[in-house]
Specification:
globular, mainly alpha, 16 helices, 365 residues, 75% helix, two-stranded antiparallel ribbon, single chain
Length: 365
């Protein structure tokens, strides 16, 4: 059908509608339904909108809910500006790690080496007993070298990224232990420690760096050709390659970004704790992955995205901080990190369907 035919049909429809409206004035029975009249189509549309809202913002709504719960349980300790500032500052490492892992997941890879690389980054800072500038260069070079080795095995040799980077995590932990003689070494760089612990508006410098990183990632993924190509590569590697996208370059870039963010997280913890420890990253493995997967169900469900990862980080940060404020056993934080992931994903899937919403309505009624 040509454009002229379409125009003719549209004109015919307009004429018929106009005639119908004219007749409806003389006979109310012929009155056409108004746009706001609720028929079956409108009801289906309403269900669809509610479904999409639930799918996109269920995890987001967990943040104020958790804040409310912990504020009621510990009003004098949790519900304070000091706690909020500490929460955001101490979880800057989690946020910066989520940046790197989000990009890695977008391109369809895994990088579990970040756990060991966090500790290695701080340990390399004290290895040479040199000035802070030299220490930073050596530490960064070491982190990027690990990223390149990961890329060699995963991209060039075709080793499964989950297996390759899990093995690399053990290697980096060993390097960190060798650099510090298996000891916790105090931070010799007073100026660097002061910079990391310096606060602006009550929030530490690492939080602003991590926030800038997540916003940059959002801009890249949502507003640039690189971001579109990264999503394309992650959803169909062969199809993307046939379309002329440099898939292997994007995969290599993602592993390097992961190494860079792991290095930054290691520096944050090195400066905040005042020491270098090879085991700094062990507690972040589950937490970071949980945050990114929570982000997969938020804002843009079914798609790894920067703002979703930010939401996932906040959910986990509020939950773990609340547990600590309540002086609960330390193992509860690990239980929370794992359980909240299962619960959030399950609720997003159940409540994100019309059938699930009807079941919820019947329970409420």
């Amino acid at each position: 059908m040509t454009n002229d035919d379409n125009a003719g049909n549209e004109t015919a429809v307009d004429v018929r509608v106009g005639e119908g409206n004219k007749e409806s004035k003389e006979n109310p029975a012929l009155e056409l339904p108004r746009a706001d009249d609720r028929g079956p189509a409108a009801g289906a549309s309403g269900h669809l909108r509610l479904r999409e809202f639930v799918r996109a913002y269920l995890v987001v709504l967990l943040i104020p809910l958790l804040i409310l719960v912990f504020s009621l349980l510990a009003p004098s300790t949790f519900a304070t500006f000091g706690t909020a500032q500490t929460l955001l500052t101490t979880n800057a490492a989690l946020l910066i790690l989520a940046v790197g892992q989000t990009f890695v997941f977008v391109v369809g890879e895994f990088d579990l080496s970040f756990a060991g690389l966090i500790g290695m980054s701080g340990c390399l800072m004290v290895w040479l007993h040199a000035g802070v500038g030299t220490a930073l260069i050596v530490s960064l070079a070491g982190a990027l070298a690990i990223g390149l080795v990961n890329a060699f095995f995963v991209v060039i040799l075709g080793v499964n990224s989950l297996i390759a980077t899990l093995g690399m995590s053990t290697v980096t932990t060993g390097i960190a232990l060798a650099a510090t003689n298996s000891q916790t070494v105090p931070n010799p760089f007073t100026g660097f420690g002061n910079f990391i612990t310096y606060r602006i508006g009550g929030l530490g410098v690492p939080f602003y760096i991590a926030l800038a990183a997540i916003l940059i990632l959002w801009g890249v993924l949502e507003r640039t050709k690189l971001g579109r190509n990264a999503y394309f590569a992650g959803s169909g590697r062969k199809a993307a390659a046939y379309a002329g996208i440099k898939v292997n370059r994007i995969r290599t870039l993602a592993l390097l970004v992961s190494a860079l963010t792991s290095w930054l997280a290691g520096l944050f913890l090195f400066g905040q704790s005042g020491s270098a420890d090879a085991t700094f990253g062990t507690g972040y493995l589950l937490t970071v992955i949980a945050a990114v997967f929570l982000g997969y169900t938020a804002i843009r469900p079914g798609r790894y995205n920067a703002l979703g990862s930010l939401v996932g980080m906040l959910v986990l940060a509020v939950g773990t901080t609340g547990i600590e404020v309540l002086a609960a056993p330390i193992w509860l934080t690990d239980v929370f990190s794992g359980a909240i992931l299962f619960v959030a994903v399950a609720l997003a899937n159940v409540l994100g369907t019309v059938k699930g919403l009807r079941a919820l309505r019947s329970v409420i009624d």
